[in-house]
Structure formats: structure tokens, C-alpha cells
Amino acid sequence: MDAIPSLDARALTNRQAPWDDFDPAAYLEHNYRTLREDDRQILAAVRDHFAGHFEGHPAPEGLQGLDVGAGTNLYPALAMLPWCAGITLFERSAGNAAWLRGAVREYGENWDAFWEVLREQPAYRRLADPRALLRETATVVQGDLFADLPERIADLGTMFFVAESLSSAYQEYQDAIGRFARALRPGAPFAVAFMENSDGYEVGEHTFPACKIERTDVLSGLREYAADTLAVSHIDVPGSQPLRDGYTGMLLALGRLRA
């Protein structure tokens, strides 16, 4: 069989991208083998956002968390652990889903540095064994965000580097935000992270698409779903640690779903 020619990331829709060829080991090594300063800032902000929300809105038992497009990033799920009886890790790529199942059973030591950032907040220090709790709590579900994600299933949610990194089409970026928002229940706190001005990225031998977005695009995408507490912050590219060519930082949106 002839090899499939490489596709230009700038011309890819979500359905055209080679998601089942996504290399989780390569992505993990490049992005999460050590704790980067930009991820540390994001994690600290998400930690404080969730803890602050539940200080003002005491959590009943049995809350359900959701991380959409989890990939090989465990820190959104770890950030939800103190309040969740169940966490769904929703992922399209077969390779990423397999990686997640292994990580849920016993995640690697590299994630301990991420947990130490979370433990600066008392809600996390109360959890004696986050590995065991993640094993008991998390379920990996493989599916297509646009076709398989149910509505109103989660009491808190995260979606990190997904909406702008699944297609070059702006409409699909907007649709991904809408799908995520409709999977949350009214009042649910959420954290959504984005690559700013990314135009595509390499993982292993394959190119994947991205849609160039800025802070105004994040605000306009989330405004119709979020309560008036929505905040969007910019995280600079660490001078010595750019993740890829052609992006200008990260954007983090913190808020809660409109009741």
C-alpha cells in the first residue's frame, strides 16, 4: 500500500486529521516529562479557581468531573480530584485513550511535581493518595467530541488545548467550545486552556491542525455560556522553553456555566 502523503495542517478539518496516529509517548516527552513554568502558572490558577468556587458553593457528594480531550495530560483531572466521585476522561485518539487507561492505573513519577503545586492548597493536601483516588475515580471514554459527547453530564469540567488544536476551521473551534459547555450542568465551574496564535503542531511524524485564536476569540466563544465571572488570562511563552514554532503564549479561561 502506498504511504499516505503528509497533509498541510493549515488545511485540515477535524475529520481529516490523523488522530489515531497521534504518538502519546512523543507528546508526553515533549510537553509533560517535566513541569514547565507556563503549566505551573495554569495549574496554580485552576487549583485556586476550583477551591475558591467550592468554598463558596459547598459540594454535595457524588459530583462528576469531565476532562474533554484529555490526551496525555493528567493535571486537569488531578485538579478536579478533591470534589469528584467520578471523572470522565474523554478522548478521541485510540493511542491516547490507551495511554490514559495505563496512567489511571498507575501514573508516572513526573506527575508528582504537578501534584506538589496542587498541594499548596489545603483541599488537595487532604488527599493522602492521589494515585489511588484517580484509579478509583477516573474512567476513560473514547469518542468524538462532535458526535459522542453527551449533554449535561458534569458538575465541573476542563478542556485543555483542544478547541483550537483539533482543526484549522474557526467554526469547528467555536463548535468545540459549545459542545464542551453543553456537557456541563448549570453552575458548573470550568477551566479551559488554549494555545494563542498556533497554526499547527508536529507530534512524532505527523502534523496536526490548529486554528489561530486570540483572547477576544476566547471571550466571544465562551461569553454566551458563562456567568459574569468569566476571566481570561495570558501566560507568556517561557523564554528558553517554547513548545513549538508560531505561537505567542497560552490563554486560560476560568468561570462557571451560566445557571
Automatic annotation (TrEMBL):
Entry-linked Pfam families: NNMT_PNMT_TEMT
Domain of life per record: Bacteria
Gene3D superfamilies: Vaccinia Virus protein VP39
Record has Cell inner membrane as a keyword: no
Any one GO biological process: methylation
Record's keyword terms, sorted: Methyltransferase, S-adenosyl-L-methionine, Transferase
Keyword Lyase: no
Entry GO MF terms: methyltransferase activity
SUPFAM superfamilies: S-adenosyl-L-methionine-dependent methyltransferases
Name listed for the protein in its UniProt record: NNMT/PNMT/TEMT family protein
